[in-house]
Amino acid sequence: MDVLNAMATQCPNSVIVAGGYSQGAAVSHRAIESLDPAVKNQIAGVVLYGDTQNTQDRGQIPNFDPAKTKVICAPGDAVCKGTLVILPAHLSYGANADEGASFLNQQILAAKTAKGTARKAKKRAETIAERLDKLAFEVAA
Questions:
Q1: Residue 129: left (phi > 0), alpha (psi -120 to 50), or beta?
Q2: How many CB atoms lie within 10 A of CB 96?
Q3: Contact 80, 55 (CB under 8 A)
Q4: Is 77 a catalytic residue?
Q5: Domain boundaries, the chain
Q6: Helices in the chain by DSSP H: which ranges?
Q7: How does pLDDT run across 80-107, given as a tens digit for each residue?
Q8: What are the angstrom distances between the C-alpha of 56 and each of 36, 61, 103?
Q9: How far apart are the C-alpha atoms of 77 and 86, rounded to whole Å?
Q10: Could you tell me which residues come within 8 angstroms of residue 80 by beta carbon, excluding any fewer than 6 positions away?
Q11: Which residue, among 19, 23, 26, 24, has the nearest Cα to 44 in the 3D structure?
């Protein structure tokens, strides 16, 4: 949680992604759930492999946009079903690396596009405001 807060504070214009596998997924899951809304909004995507919290939280991170979350659970992974029994399926997530990376890449591109659009709109609004101020000054003179 401290790392995500530090990223958001030190690099407020950055796009943040996160992820984890097994216990790391649980740590990411709980940390993100506890973040301030402003920090959550800066997170573009999260990938959780073999998430130990999957069953308890119904395949999502509480209080976090489900569209920004991808939980990958292999068929037969008992950990994803809420037990801490490690079966071969729980050790198979290397085969899903591209799936998670692709999801995060899409989320990053969407976030950058949205930020670029917002920046352009803000710049246009500032330009219009400057022109209106100048026009008001000219009319007043």
A1: alpha
A2: 17
A3: yes
A4: yes
A5: 2-113
A6: 2-10, 23-33, 37-42, 97-140
A7: 998 989 999 999 999 999 999 999 999 9
A8: 22, 10, 23
A9: 8
A10: 50, 51, 52, 54, 55, 71, 73, 74, 90
A11: 19
- Give catalytic status of residue 22 as yes or no: yes
Nearest to 50 by CA among 17, 88, 107, 104: 88
Domain 2-113 has CATH 3.40.50.1820: yes
- Single out the catalytic residue among 28, 29, 51, 77: 77
Q: How confident is the model at residue 114 (pLDDT cuts 50, 70, 90)?
A: confident
* Residue 90 falls in the annotated catalytic set: yes
Catalytic residue among 14, 28, 90, 102: 90
Residue closest to 46 by CA, chosen among 29, 62, 58: 29
Are the beta carbons of 23 and 49 closer than 8 angstroms? no
What pLDDT is attached to residue 117? 62
